[in-house]
Amino acid sequence: MRLDKFLKVSRIIKRRTVAKEIADKGRIMINDKPAKSSSDVRVGDTLVINFGNKTLTVRADDLVETTKKNDAAGMYTVLKEDYKETF
Fold first, then answer.
1. N or C end of the chain: which has fewer CB within 10 A?
2. What is the pTM of this model?
3. Taking a C-beta distance cutoff of 8 angstroms, is the pair 34, 50 a contact?
4. Which three-class secondary structure state does DSSP give residue 21?
5. Dihedrals φ, ψ of 80, to 5°?
6. What is the distance between the alpha carbons of residues 3 and 5, in angstroms, rounded to a whole number?
7. RNA-binding S4 domain location, by residue (predicted)?
C-alpha cells in the first residue's frame, strides 16, 4: 500500500494530500530509510513521522483499503511518541 494512502486510511494524518506533502519533504522514514509518498508500506514496517514539534514512531500491523474510524487504530501500534519543547 502507498505510504500516503496508509497514513490517511489509518487516520494518522487526516488528508492524503497532507500526507503526500509531509512525505515528499523527507519527514517520514520507513525502516530507517527516507520515504516518498509512493513508497510501499508492508505489515511489520516501522514508520518514523516528524511533525512540527512531535516525532511519532509506529509499526504497521494491518493494511486495508478502507476502514471505519473505530477500526483505524488497529492498523498500527504506536511504539514511541516524542515531543520537542519550544520556549
1. C
2. 0.85
3. no
4. helix
5. -160, 145
6. 5
7. 1-64
* Number of domains comprising the chain: 1
Contact 45, 30 (CB under 8 A): yes
pLDDT per position as a tens digit, 7-56: 999 999 999 999 999 999 999 999 999 999 999 999 999 999 998 889 99
Q: Which three cell numbers stand for residue 87?
A: 520556549
Q: How far apart are alpha carbons 57 and 72 in whole angstroms?
A: 16
CATH number, domain at 58? 3.10.290.10
Whether residue 3 has pLDDT greater than 70: yes
The alpha carbon dihedral of 30, 28, 23, 64 has a sign of positive
* DSSP secondary structure, 11-68, as one string: TSSS-HHHHHHHHHTT-EEETTEE--TT-B--TT-EEEEE-SSEEEEEEE----S---
Contacts of 5 (CB under 8 A, 6+ apart): 16
